[in-house]
């Protein structure tokens, strides 16, 4: 009875969040470091539950560690500059193969296996239907691009059909040349273009930490201004900076809230979005909580 009462209390606590976010778009970015078969299954269940209560979920994934593994298997050496992968024509082929041909298909398959009645997940590359148009970042990085335009209608139409888009972050320029895109930035651009209620980054960390060496020092809430100040004063780990900057820019551009949560925790997405306590770091434009 205690367990049943606790379950009922959790459901009642979730109700106002469900009512508030029904019909709203939520962009979830899954990092390659957080990819794992069991965690993917739990994430699939979270996405399906959110979909079933009316939220319009778009899943965006990276896959850097998996690309590194494949490159080394093929005798290629990964190279990075300022945190971005130097992407030659040969590297680009590997990135497309891993992101579009492997990770995307695995995530789509996992979600569809968990779906109760009929498949709902659809794999989409940023190249498909002109979803992500890019401009080159700089010549020294090779085929690395910045998102210049998001054709949000591609995703909106899929969502209107009751489908769940799973986006791999390869885009193309106006001439059709493919480019590798930083997945954090791609997710931010998609969330802004869709006027999303939330953008959620699933990472291999609890969230933003006051002390990077102490996972108990989690910062639960802060504003985009406070976040930019932390980035400028170099008080956070360099690996977290692209996500933090993307979060701050997203909320400043109109996304309701941004969240950084621990993708290693089963059902972290539900805990963050549907409970009072949450599990990670939430960023708003103004301090109105």
Helix fraction by DSSP (H/I, runs of at least 4)? 40-55%
Number of strands: 14
Class computed from helices, strands and strand pairing: alpha/beta
- CA distance, first residue to last residue: 34 Å
Strand order of the largest sheet: 5-8-2-1-11-13-14-12
Rounded mean pLDDT is: 91
Low-confidence residue ranges: none
Q: Approximately what portion of the residues adopt beta-strand conformation?
A: 15-25%
Gross morphology: globular
Radius of gyration: 18 Å
Tally of DSSP helical segments: 9
The SSE string, one letter per element, is HEHEHEEHEEEHEEEHEEHHEHE
The major beta sheet can be summarized as: 8 strands, mixed
Characterise this structure.
The protein is α/β, with parallel strands linked by helices and 289 residues long. The chain is 42% helix and 21% strand. The strands form 4 sheets. The protein has an 8-stranded mixed beta sheet with strand order 5-8-2-1-11-13-14-12, sandwiched between helices. It has a two-stranded antiparallel sheet with strand order 3-4. Strands 6-7 form a two-stranded antiparallel sheet. Helix 2 packs across helix 4 (89-114) and helix 6 packs parallel to helix 8.
What features would you highlight for this structure?
single chain, globular, 289 residues
Structure summary:
The protein contains nine helices and 14 strands. It is of the alpha/beta class.
